[in-house]
Amino acid sequence: MAKQLPCIDASCRDFIDRQRIFFAASAAPGARVNLSPRGTDAFAVLDDRTVAYLDRTGSGNETAAHLKADGRLTLMFCAFDGPPNILRFYGRGEVVRRGSEAYRDILAQAFDGKEPAGARQIVRLHVDRVQTSCGYGTPLFDYRGERPSLGNWASAKGEEGLEAYRREKNALSIDGLPTGLFDGG
Q: Which pLDDT score, from 0 to 100, does residue 183 have?
């Protein structure tokens, strides 16, 4: 039932446009596997082999640590309504640091230059495999709306508070791997 596609084609883009959530999975040798939900409002297809998402400050920074140590990243989209389908992008990821020229370019190109409160970095995935599968086992869910919690929290912290929080909570992974957030990469 799984099908490999040569690239991120129009059918993939149409499917992504109908989704509200995707999942990012990463790992590094000797470290725990990390799996995080992300909103598609912060996701963009850059070209037929490259995607990116705007990553906001959170309780950890596992993906950045794993990408720095190993580079592997998988993104998965599931149809929770409509016809069943699962879409996965496999490849090598990299963190694009906030404030860098590359960050500004992606922000302008893919996100209309809009940076949400708490933006920490952009994660870019160079896709080497595009795969769909049936999704028959995925349950149906109804979308009720976005949660304002993260934006409200980040706005209340302010830029100084976010910087202090990132230094305390986002410099190392839960396994002690450096995320590169403060060492320039």
A: 82
**Per-residue 3-state assignment (H helix, E strand, C coil) for 90-132:** EEEEEEEECCCHHHHHHHHHHHCCCCCCCEEEEEEEEEEEEEE
Residues 6+ apart with CB under 8 A from 163: none
Whether the per-residue pLDDT at 121 is higher than 60: the answer is: yes
Q: What is the pTM of this model?
A: 0.96
Spell out the domain ranges in the chain: 3-135+145-169
Residue with tokens 């596992």: 62
Q: What pLDDT is attached to residue 58? A: 94
Superfamily of domain 3-135+145-169: Electron Transport, Fmn-binding Protein; Chain A (2.30.110.10)
In this predicted structure, the answer to whether residue 74 has a pLDDT above a threshold of 70 is yes
For residues 184 and 151, what is the distance between their CA atoms, to the nearest angstrom? 26
**What's the rounded mean pLDDT across residues 160-169?**
97
- Assess contact for 149 and 106: CB atoms under 8 A: no
**Would you say 60 and 170 are in contact if contact means Cβ atoms under 8 Å apart?**
yes
